[in-house]
Amino acid sequence: MEQDRVVTEQRTPWHLWVIGIVALLWNLVGAYDYLMTQTENAAYMGRFTAEQLEYWYGFPTWVVASWAIAVWGGVLGAVLLLLKKRLAAPVFLVSFLAMVLTSIHNFLLSDGAAIMGTPAVAFSGVIFLFALGLWLYARAMARQGVLT
């Protein structure tokens, strides 16, 4: 005899759509920046000094790989969040950790802060907080049963 299973569907909160769309747009900007930098797009990279270009183009392979994981993981995490998949939380976590690893190189193991200046350091702080917030939000939504 099979027991009836009662499946309760968790209603999707309105803020998931807002945060998911903002997260996707935010991470797509990061993906665009990554692509323009990696392809050495002259029009995009023309705003940097020769010293800054040397810095960007001199990243070790592991930093470029970590940056790629951070950026594309953020895009994937946002898509998964919008699809209401609980996999969004661990993907955002991996993206966040890759971003931290990239920042360790950029600001502790190299002269990135001196070369790029205070605005770049401040903006990296914003990126850090945003990435951390996305992971915490997705984790909370998964724990509440919104993400399946």
Describe this protein's structure.
The structure is a single chain. With 148 residues, this protein is mostly helical. The protein has one domain. It has helices spanning 14-38, 42-45, 50-57, 61-82, 88-109, 112-116, 118-143. It is elongated and about 55 Å long.
SSE inventory with pairings:
Layout: H1 14-38, H2 42-45, H3 50-57, H4 61-82, H5 88-109, H6 112-116, H7 118-143
Rg over alpha carbons = 18 Å
**Tally of distinct domains:** 1
* N-to-C order of helices and strands: HHHHHHH
Sum up the overall morphology in one term: elongated
Proportion of beta-strand residues: under 5%
User: Largest sheet at a glance?
Assistant: none
List keywords for this structure.
148 residues, mainly alpha, elongated
